Amino acid sequence: MKLCSLSVNILNAKFVADEAEQKCSEQILHEILDIFPHNIFKMPLRKQAEALEHMCFVKVAQTIHSLAVQLEEDPECCKMSKEELSNMVSALPAVINENMIVKVIETIHKTFSRTRRTVGMKTCLEVLLQKHVQRLELNGLFFKMRLQGTINSTIRNIVCARVATMRNLMTLNMVSKCSDEILCVLSEKCPEVSDVNVSISDLVTDAGIKALAKGCLKLENLGIYKCWNITTEGIAYVLKHSKNLKKLKCDQLGAVLINEFSTSKSTFKLTHFEQTQTLFEPTAEDVRWVGSACPSLESVSLFVDDKNLSLVPLLGQIRVLEIETGVMLGDGFIEAIKYLGKSLQTLQLSCNQVQQEFIVVLGECCPSLTTLHLSTAALEGDELLANPGQLFSGLTVLHLQVWKESVLSNKWVDFFLLWCRKLESVLLKAEVGFLTDQYLGTLLAVNPLTEAKYIVIASDEFVPLTLESVHKLMSSCPALENLGLSSWNITEEEFFQIRDDIKTNNYNLNIS
Questions:
Q1: What is the mean pLDDT of residues 359-367?
Q2: pTM for the whole structure
Q3: Side-by-side strand order, sheet with 171-173
Q4: Mind telling me which residue stretches traverse the membrane in this protein (predicted)?
Q5: Which one of 67, 144, 171, 496 has the fewest beta carbons within 10 angstroms of its own beta carbon?
Q6: Which residues does 276 contact at the CB level (< 8 Å), separation at least 6?
């Protein structure tokens, strides 16, 4: 009973404004500390000694890259020929070879970021892409670096030639720079392929994905998101011929499914449904058919208006819901979350306006929610935003972003941060002029965020937190690994001081 009464006191406490600072009343703070256990302050965990395995991978990766550079710049002075280096790599077990590809790409990325040179890249790929490889992770090579056209063409040619020898290949991740030619080779030479991601590749067309669907009968996961040269015809062909397909990451999936298959008796093993390229405007019959034809759906991504949000429950017991809407949430949203209820675990919501009472309803209807991403232009509502203590109690991820022209109220921060004790990831990006050192200290006294590993508090303008809050978070959150403080009232000298202290004490913490 005393705890209930205290909860009301906390949520109704008024903060007195004094030069942009709001202070919690001393009486309420004493009551809080009487009931909640005092935090036993701990500093962040120490960095563990680097694993010998990791050290070996890094050292070998650096050596391979160094030899590749020498072979391209001055082959006569190199102690090892390309053939010898290739033979050395080929003797490695497949899993080590696969990890070595990733580590060498990381080394190349660091070198390229520093020097803008791509020397050694061609040779690295020629010696690393061995025939026994089962997982080929090349996304880091292209996605992180803006390379010139000539080297891109060279790399694609090497990948195409090497993939032709990989009879055991199961996974290809080549985001951004894949081509139809590579997919055609994959379909002819790699029958075991089950997972392919070629999103954002403008050289992939219908011809490439049709060949893939025809030749790789074990295909389960395909990413073709933002492949602008793929048409609905190619997507429909994949859906028709890839009988084992479980996840198709494609922003036109919903339109193709409904337009091409709704009159048939086709069924699909899909676990993900998506329509984000254009507004999703189905009939209830359309959505009901999708739910029936795809009985295994677990996640949904939609660009949709509020009215059609009410149809989402017809898709089944959805666990992950990603919604983008250009309007204010209304009855359609309320109806959706009431029906989804306990099944919903993740909600990612981007909209123009959110009524704060809707957030209360979300907490009441979806007790299993663990992840909440909310991006909006305005947080509105006349009703008091009050958390009786049990709402969002299982939340581990809270990302709250309010666009520049709106201000985040302290009531919103209190609503979540006073009560969500399992939070591991916290992102607040908004105008938070009330969030002072004293205010943060009060929050941490109630909820010390002992599980938090990632905390970012940012603003386009200014966050009035200082070096004092850095130390408070470090002492309160022993699991903390990443702290974002770029918008804080911290000087460059203080930033470097914190960084040096972290390094000196060997804390497992990164600041940015």
A1: 92
A2: 0.84
A3: 135-137, 171-173, 195-197, 221-223, 247-249
A4: none
A5: 496
A6: 251, 301, 302, 303, 324
